[in-house]
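Thread: "does anyone have the structure for this chain?"

Original post by V.I.:
We have the sequence but no experimental structure in hand. Need at least a predicted one for the grant figures.
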Amino acid sequence: MESKEIFIISTVRSATEEYVNKLEQYVQKLESSGHSVHLPHRDTNQENSGFDICVQNTNAINDADEVHIFYNSKSQGTHFDLGVAFALNKKLVVVENENYCKGKSFAKMIDEWSRKK
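Reply from O.Q.:
Generated one for you, C-alpha cells below.
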C-alpha cells in the first residue's frame, strides 16, 4: 500500500476526552500503516491566533493527498477546513458523518463529494 499524507478534519475547541481518544486511535491505525497524518489538535499550534491556525491548516491540507473528516456541523473550524479542501479539490474520506434527511445539507454534500473521486 502506498504511503499517503492525510489531513484530519475534526472538532478541536469543543472536543471531549472521549472524542479526542477516538481521533487518536484512528490516527494511530493510519500511522501504523505507514501514512503521515496531520491531526489539528496535535499538529497545529493551537496557541496561535485564529488566522494563523487557518493558515497552518490550509498549508497542511494543500500538502495532503487525502482529507479524512469526522463531521460536526457545530464546528466552525470544520467548515473552514472543509471549504479549503473543496477549493483544492482534495479526495475526501468520510470517517464520521451526521444523519441527514432529504434536502441540502453539508452532511449530505460531503457524502456526495466522497463518492466523486
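V.I.: this helps a lot. The chain has five helices and four strands.
O.Q.: and The beta strands are 5-9, 36-38, 66-70, 91-96.
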